[in-house]
Design brief:
The protein has 199 residues and is α+β, with helices and mostly antiparallel strands. Helix content is 25%, strand content 30%. It has six helices and 13 strands. The strands form three sheets. Strands 4-5-6-13-8-11 form a six-stranded mixed beta sheet, sandwiched between helices. A four-stranded antiparallel beta sheet has the order 7-12-9-10.
């Protein structure tokens, strides 16, 4: 997570909430969270003191801090930054929470991508040839318009067909699935288009 990433997200979603030790990273970048949510096992003592009164301790240990934060934020949409991480297990846990989450739409901002869960028909404004990757987190069938390789009638699954490195063949891409589980990944410069599509 960089200061630029935080600035980009806060210009679109102006309330900063940190998941546990993410508060330390926000403070280091010069931003003070309005709330910190999690089991608080990785929050520094200095941050505890500085953010006293803004800490929301969720004691259960059956979910990640990202999951805890998602469940306790009420907003039109959520932009999550700094959560994909270098560790594969953490990244997979975040994607798992993303598809199980039934609250406000959440979009992940990574170093290269914006990722969101296609919970409803998706309409994306893209440039011709831009990457549109699809990754199923469960068994799901989809339909599309405006993709170089249409997905109409295809069945996707994490242990079967996936849809990475597809591309826009039109300036508008429409995606529809028969149920939850499909993640959409587009270049991060399409953040605003992804927000409109997810919300």
């Amino acid at each position: 997570m960089t200061r630029r990433d935080l600035r980009m997200c806060l210009s679109r979603a102006p309330v900063l909430v940190a998941a546990d030790g993410g508060a330390d990273r926000a403070l280091a970048a010069g931003y003070e969270p309005e709330a910190v949510i999690g089991d608080l096992d990785s929050l520094s003592d200095a941050a505890r003191i500085q953010l006293a009164g803004r800490l929301h301790h969720v004691t259960e240990q059956d979910s990640t801090d990202f999951d805890k934060a998602l469940r306790h934020v009420d907003a039109p949409f959520i932009l999550a930054v700094g959560v994909t991480g270098a560790r594969v297990d953490h990244g997979l846990a975040v994607l798992n929470a993303l598809v199980r989450h039934d609250g406000p739409p959440c979009l992940l901002l990574g170093s290269e991508d914006v990722i969101f869960h296609a919970r409803r028909p998706v309409l994306l404004r893209m440039a011709m040839g831009e990457r549109v990757s699809l990754f199923p987190m469960g068994r799901v069938t989809g339909r599309s318009e405006g993709l170089r390789w249409p997905i109409n009638g295809m069945s996707f699954a994490p242990d079967g067909r996936i849809g990475t490195s597809n591309a826009a063949s039109a300036t508008t891409v429409r995606l529809d699935t028969d149920g939850p589980g499909m993640l959409v990944m587009v270049p991060r410069k399409r953040l605003d288009a992804a927000i409109r599509a997810a919300t």
